[in-house]
Amino acid sequence: MRFPDFFIIGAMKAATSTLHEQLSSQPGFSMSQPKELYFFSDDAVWDQGLEWYASHFEGAAPTDLCGESSTHYSKLPTYPRTLERLAATIASPRFIYVMRHPIDRLVSQYQHMQLEGEIHEPLEVAINRSAPEMIEYSRYSKQLLPYLTRFGAEAVLPVFFDRLLQSPQSELERVCSFLGYSGAPVWDEARQANVTSERLAVSPARERAKSVPFSDLIRRLTPEPLINRVRNQWRAGPKPVLSDRDLAFLTDIFDRDLLQLGSWLGTPLDCANFPTVTGSLSPTWIDGLQETLPPCNDKNLATS
């Protein structure tokens, strides 16, 4: 059975879809379709078995690099068994982890969940009560530590969202070099993943409209300005604005996490300097990182 050689493990809402698409456009890569299989994280998917999982890569050529991109794989404490299953199944995997400003990533996830109909509360309520896991997914050192300790720093490539946006070609080359790709990758500007603000919210009314007989004909006969007005009603609203209190609360949490991450990368990091530093930095782990890492007990991943 053929399994992936590497995984884009996150972070959610940090251009993982764009990177997946860019790699899939390069000859010699075979990327999973759909992008996110969630095999090692989600119990119900895991129960479908290894043959089901391997079927997604059976069309790959022997020399292809196979990859999967599932952001659930870096969502502790929600999916605590991911690493245990992955380590038992894949020999010498490699991982790519893309990091966006932690507060921007959180807000983008909130908007995504709104569009999907998964959350209805205001952002401040979600942060403090209904969806506190959004904070955990932006704690990058916490999400990375189990991978670094289990597989080694040489198996994990850190990538910054801002650097990927500003220097896409050189970052794509860096990613491909890390994966051992022998070709000459070319960034394809036409392959840009969808932006949350342009996506349409889940709507029963919209689904009913799509199922109306002759809906395609009706759409073609409807004036474009009217169609655009209707679509705008289903698009994500303006970016939520955090209160000063919530901003200070999140900044305190993420500054402590970024202090740890920065020590692993050999550069000071916090919420204030994140855009400037990460826009110009292709990050690498410090020499001897493995010896400096704190212990990570897999049994405690669900609550760490």
Instruction: Give the strand order, joined by hyphens, for the main sheet.
Output: 2-3-1-4-5
CATH topology of the largest domain: Rossmann fold
Radius of gyration: 20 Å
DSSP summary, beta strand count: 5
The gross shape turns out to be globular
Q: What portion of the residues fall into strands of 2 or more residues? A: 5-15%
The overall pLDDT average reads: 87
The CATH first-level class of the largest domain comes to Alpha Beta
Low-confidence stretches: 195-207, 230-234
Number of helices: 16
Characterise this structure:
The protein has 16 helices and 5 strands. The chain has 304 residues and is of the alpha/beta class. The chain has 2 domains: 6-192 and 250-300, P-loop containing nucleotide triphosphate hydrolases (Rossmann fold); 200-234, no CATH class. The protein has a 5-stranded parallel beta sheet with strand order 2-3-1-4-5, with helices on both faces. It is globular, with a radius of gyration of 20 Å. The protein starts with 5 loop residues before the first strand and ends in a 12-residue tail after the last helix.
In short:
By secondary structure, the chain is of the alpha/beta class. Helix content is 46%, strand content 8%.
